[in-house]
Amino acid sequence: MMFRMIAIVAGLGLALAAPAEAQTPRKGGTIRMTAPYGSSFTSLDIHTTQRAQDEIYAKALHRSLYIWDSAEGKPVPELAKEAVVSGGGLVYTFKLRDDAYFHNGRKMTADDVIWSYNRIMDGSKAYPGARYVRIIEGAAAVEKGQAKEISGLKKIDDFTVEMKLTEKVDPAFYLFTALTSIYPADEAVKDSFIQHPIGLGPFKFVEHVPGSRIVMERWDRFYKPGKPYADKVIVSVMGEAAARDVAFRNKEIDTSVLGPAQYVAYQADPNLKGTIAEVAEVFTRYMGINPAFKPFADKRVRQAINYAIDTDLIINKLVKGKAYRATSWLPLTSTAYDKAMKPYPYDPAKARQLLAEAGYPSGFEFEWTTSQNESWGLPIVAAVIPMLDKVGIKAKVKQVEAAVLSEVVRSGDYQAFIYSQQTGPDPQAALKCFHSSTPQSACNYMNFKNAEFDKIIDEAGQADDTAKRTQLLQKANALLYDEAPVWFFNYNKAVMAVQPWLHGVQLNATELTHQNVEDLWVDETSPAK
């Protein structure tokens, strides 16, 4: 089955243009996925890593309270069967599944949910998922070491949990990612857990060959009847686009993320153009700027960088149109995106004027940390450097591995970096990354602090009216545009080649490589029986 799929998130929903599949899913076979964002996985402990690379395997191995439904364009209950809302929208009482078994055969209970969230809030570990769990009352106190347990979590019985929130948000948008996976409390405290993780997902861990692959096999006690379809999932590390291309053409892998050059090549190839799946993702690519580095402390310098770069030229020539121009932080696919906003125009003269006003008429020099990523890494940095040079700003490149870059970003050990960050699906959660109460290690990577911004976000968090909340979030997004804590580069158009024998691929706008693998199946034409 050859196909071309395009998804656009409009408003709250996801519109799909894809042929309907009438075939009955086949049981058995092996699904061969790729991890395309670096030369390794960071950890087998998904609580510790925010990299999209690691969540690819974690979607098969683990489960959270909610899960992303690509057809609906929103998170839906998963380990939670239902939620009853009370307390003016601040109290959620979750009825949990009583048929979810960990891969060691033990049934999940409310204790595992509470233990997992308390673990994630351990401030000494700086787990990235803390940014999501922090919406629970008392979570911040645990993070700061002021309390041992989250006060806003209460066990009613083995399969009922009460959760009090600090603001009026939908917890579904916070508790669906693998960063908030529910671990088995008794097993996860053991040292062996990190080498041999145990989850609730449709596939159980078999082996990890560092720098090569993770192998998982079907979990027969998975709680969705008849699923998963496949017997095995192999996630192979393939950070090099050329290697993925060869493997895909040789039918050695079932999925392959396409970079800009391959996107053009596959579209032009009659044998491959029908394999393309694409979606407008909720990711913003940007250059992060450290305000502790003196020139970057001045807003005019940060604005000058945005004026100095011909962003449209880079998107057209280097990214080959596989992106959408960024105006501010929230992407086109966000429910709070403001269509009236216009991006920074290319204006080197304005950049020079702002630099002179800020006291840098001759410019300055800085170090720019980057990975080799072809869509938002070294090739982009190389194209930007001469543009900055024209206005007197000199950039020295510091190249690091993708896994190292994610740690550099979280630790603040940089003058500038280039990155791709999830900026949805919930606009409030995305913008909260710039709130001064959000630690750098969670997602406030630029260590942004602005009292007016905090006030707007806090007000949005207490707003009952959706329209009022959206208006406030748009105001906060406009303030970020003016403050320019980053160079606003682009919003990603994700493109993945899918072999014709792999069925059930979801157009996931939160990250195309993150598939609910229990819904994938391979037909008998797959070379991997």
UniProtKB/TrEMBL annotation:
The UniProt entry, under SUPFAM superfamilies, shows:
Periplasmic binding protein-like II
Domain Solute-binding protein family spans what residues? Answer: 74-439
Superkingdom of this protein's organism: Bacteria
Give UniProt keywords alphabetically: Signal
Question: Record's PANTHER family?
Answer: ABC TRANSPORTER SUBSTRATE-BINDING PROTEIN (PTHR30290:SF83), PERIPLASMIC BINDING COMPONENT OF ABC TRANSPORTER (PTHR30290)
Can you tell me which family this protein belongs to?
Belongs to the bacterial solute-binding protein 5 family.
> Protein name, please?
ABC transporter substrate-binding protein
Where does this protein come from, organism-wise? Answer: Bradyrhizobium cytisi
